[in-house]
Amino acid sequence: MKLSKTFDKALWVFHLNSGSCNACDIEIVAAITPRYDTERFGIKLVGTPRHADVLLFTGPVTKKMKDRVLRVYEQTPEPKVVLVVGNCGSTTGVYYDSYGIEGPLDELLPEDANIIYANGCPVRPENIINGVKEAWLFLEKVRGDNE
Amino acid sequence: MNLEVLIEGWFFKVVLTVLVSFIGVFLGLLYKGFDRKITAMMQSRIGPPWIQPFRDVKKLFMKETIIPDTAIPWLFNAAPIVALVAPLIALAYLPLGPFGPIMEGYGGLILLLYLLAIPAVAMAFGGLASGSPYATVGSQRELVLMMSYELPLAITAVALAFNYETFSIATISSEPVWNSVGMMGGIGFALILAALFAVMPGELSKVPFDQAEAETELAGGLFVEYSGRNLGIFYIAEVVKMVVVGAFLIALFFPYNLSSLYSFGGPEINGMMLWNVIVDTAFFLFKLLIIIYVAVSVIRVGFARFQINKASYFYWVPMTIISLLGMLLVVVGGAA
Ligand code: SF4
User: Fold this and answer.
1) pLDDT tens digit sequence for B132-165
2) Chains A and B: how many Cβ contacts under 8 Å?
3) What confidence tens digit (pLDDT) does each residue in B255-302 have?
4) Which of A49, B5, B93, B143 could serve as a FRET partner for B269 with CA atoms 20 to 30 Å apart?
5) What is the pLDDT of residues B175-234, one digit of tens each?
């Protein structure tokens, strides 16, 4: 895995709804509209995990979605970063202790997964962009470790 | 060694072809960057910097390349390479600005039509070989679309060949087609040109004719299983194809050169004046930008994706009728 700065400025994002209430998904759409225009950072929404560098998960993981989440994670080529958008993805939020929930994402994904959080219920688009900035910082750290 | 002999020699042709291939890739990525920037500006966004496609490609080559278990590996890996090589070869048969085709005399319009069709076929095979249902649907759509737009494209070639009585693209581009026909033929060629502009987004699988990729419904269509290096090669192939189709359109319908109006002089190299060559090259790049702007960016922003049956209908019925009408006018006008 050899990363360079180019990688940061060409992040392709795959968005998976793992059981969210849909509010965060709408905020993600807001982040690619003219007002916030994340494409200026080279961010592009792609349709398949095979093309993705960033996996964007929204929502607590429901029982039905657990296997799919893991499978999508596996299908994504290395190097990859997981961006958890919304409180319910990071802590299960308003769905806390619900019977249909398998738990927050970080408990399900493999130990070595690189997870970044953007919190809010729902997340503001600014916070999603902030999450991307944190992904950059994270990638910078990964580069530093490798050298 | 004598310069004339060197330029006629095969070794020089090989070197030139390699050089033109690299220039083609560079130009393609550059124009893709402009296209994305212009599109963003038309949607009142800021958009990515023009260097973005270079970054995308570099990133894709850094990523892991996955070959799915369900795929047929050799076909899966060969498809992107074939899709890239065909438009690169086509570049060698096209006149580029002040320079004639490198492979002049070895093939003309017919060969170019085949070379333009190969990438679509390669993409379809790659999709079928990847063993994903989404990619299979994408491949089928690509083939349907290809069969639809080939007819107007072939009619264009026939009409031009009829007018010039040759398939040689160097001869066709030596004189603008508008000068060689009368009023009726002019209208005929204008109709054919309109059909060709409609074919171009289909040929490049751009919105409104990107049913084969269709991110929102097919999740990437025939590229769905491609990742890393293979996807990067497809990316490059796509942008080179943009340059090739643009240069094809320029060679057939707008082979104008500024130096024929006014000579800029300069030291003479092999029968061409240096400043003339530079100005004509710049003018060619400008024409290419305009064509890509009209046929790719504006149409992409202005239209939404057609359903595949409507797209097919669009090419089979209205566009075929328009180009047939154009050919009829050319034939009648030529005979008169
Ligand atoms: S974080 Fe809140 S708004 Fe976002 S998906 Fe979860 S419940 Fe909905």
Assistant:
1) 888 888 888 888 888 888 888 888 888 888 877 7
2) 81
3) 777 767 676 666 766 666 777 778 888 888 888 888 888 888 888 888
4) B93
5) 777 777 777 778 888 888 888 888 888 888 777 777 767 676 777 778 888 888 888 898
Instruction: Quote the minimal CA–CA distance from B52 to chain A in Å.
Output: 7
For A17, list phi and psi in degrees, rounded to 5: -90, 110
User: What sign results for the dihedral spanned by CA atoms A118, A124, A130, A131?
Assistant: positive
- The domain that holds A52 is classified in CATH as 3.40.50.12280
Cβ of residue B69 closer than 8 Å to a chain A Cβ:
no
User: A97: domain range?
Assistant: 7-143
- Asked if B62's CB is within 8 angstroms of A2's CB, the reply is yes
Asked if residue A46 belongs to a domain, the reply is yes
Total domains in chain A come to: 1
Cα-to-centroid distance, A86 and ligand 1 (Å): 5
Q: What is the ipTM of this complex?
A: 0.82
Q: Is A3 on the interface with B (CB under 8 A)?
A: yes
Q: What angle do CA B40, B45, B46 make, to 5 degrees?
A: 85
Is A122's C-beta closer than 6 angstroms to any atom of ligand 1?
yes
Indicate the SS3 state at residue A57. Answer: strand
For A23, residues 6+ apart whose C-beta sits below 8 A from its C-beta are A86, A121, A122
Q: Cβ separation of B63 and A10 shorter than 8 Å? A: no
Asked, for residue A12, whether it belongs to a domain, the answer is: yes
